[in-house]
Amino acid sequence: MEYLHKHRITHRDLKPKNILLKTSNKDRRGYVSKVRARGCTDVRMYGRLRVGTVTHMAPELIEDGKVYQQGDVYAFGIIMWEIYTSSTPYQNMAHPQIMVGVVTHNLRPKFPANCPEWYRSLANRCWRKDPKTRPPFAEVTKALLAMLPDNKEWSPLE
């Protein structure tokens, strides 16, 4: 996502289903993540586009149909919650309930008490209501890499 945003591309539907894993001998984990490009748009294309998955839509997209790169950061915060909990957000809610909750009541998934504070804090920063206060992906990448024990040997853009 950092790469896409550097090239002024906004995904608009970032969710686990659109993140693919590919075998890689270059990566110490043995795989790399690839973001499926369907739904991507040049960031200069604004408008009232309600494209995406409701559970991962940023408040500004739900409320005003505004597409910003920071909407992808919001979706990534939701994905962080999904990775940590192995759950789907808002499972027992209808789409209109989710939309009203996210926009009007600042509804966000709740992390379990045993979640590390640094992880919870990063996700919370990603899904802030005001898109201008969300961290850019370069900052998110830096925060995640800082948590790896030997992060000097690995680059997320390989």
UniProtKB/TrEMBL annotation:
Coiled-coil regions listed: none
UniProt organism field: Volvox carteri f. nagariensis
Cross-referenced SMART domains: S_TKc
Residue ranges annotated for the Protein kinase domain, each copy included: 1-148
One Pfam family matching this protein: PK_Tyr_Ser-Thr
The protein's name in its UniProt record: Protein kinase domain-containing protein
GO molecular function, one term: protein serine/threonine kinase activity
InterPro entries: Kinase-like_dom_sf, Prot_kinase_dom, Ser-Thr/Tyr_kinase_cat_dom, Ser/Thr_kinase_AS, Ser/Thr_Kinases-Pseudokinases
